[in-house]
Give the backbone structure.
Amino acid sequence: MKKAILLATVLFACAKKDEPAPDTAATAVGPPALTAADLAGTWNGTALAENSDSVLFKFTVWSPTGTDAKTLVEGQKDTVAVTHMISGDSVVATSAAYKDQTMPGKPTVMFRAVGRMMGGKIVGTSTVMLASKPDSVLARTRVELTKAP
């Protein structure tokens, strides 16, 4: 019995120690941070239905500084002021209130969009809400913007 315990102790002591797995989280590189310069310029956009590839409308964004912009949606008469907030690899665009000429009753709305740079395009989602009730949701879309030449 003592020999068995001694043998088990020797085997346990001589066993190869498992090396801990390398910490890949510390060395992982994420996408590069966006800058205002990345967003500056003219962008042509398409809004798609949330769950299909149906094009809902097209729009153009003019952003001279990358932190503010004007957007013109097809079917609208006026441009809409938009501010950009950059955080890491993402941009959050929030519009000023405007009358949506394309919606029934032409309500005063605003939108908030979140996007990331992917393959030279900005892709993301957008939510349209009543300006007087920002927690309302009138529409959700997917958006894709390509920089104009």
Notes: The chain has one domain: 36-147. The chain has a mean pLDDT of 86.
